[in-house]
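Weekly structure sync, notes
Attendees: PL, DS, HV (note-taker this week)

Item 1: HNH endonuclease
DS walked through the input record. Source organism listed as Flavobacterium oncorhynchi. Sequence as pasted into the shared doc:
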Amino acid sequence: MANKPKKVKRSWVKENVAFDRERTKEDFDYNGRKWRKLRLLQLNTFPLCCDCEAEDLVVAATVADHDTQAKVLIARGDDPYDMKWLKSRCKKHHDSKSGKERHRGGMG
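Item 1 (cont.): predicted structure, written out as tokens:
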């Protein structure tokens, strides 16, 4: 009967590490039913982009965006599902805001 060859450890090959799949209380579920319903309610209540309105433009909003980061709200003990933390934005303004936040070190 043949023996199984010994595993050779090669120093230049990275070892596979198990991906951390644990969710914590600080994680916000953007795919959950509660968020999807709140997003639709926000976009139906405020259908125009708030930033475009400030520029006297009429553009439909496509994104319900947390004005303050959801993780920050959770850490402070606030409810991230409260509509007072949301703004309706078009994709252009949402991406612009998120890019600036990421550049500063936050999460968009």
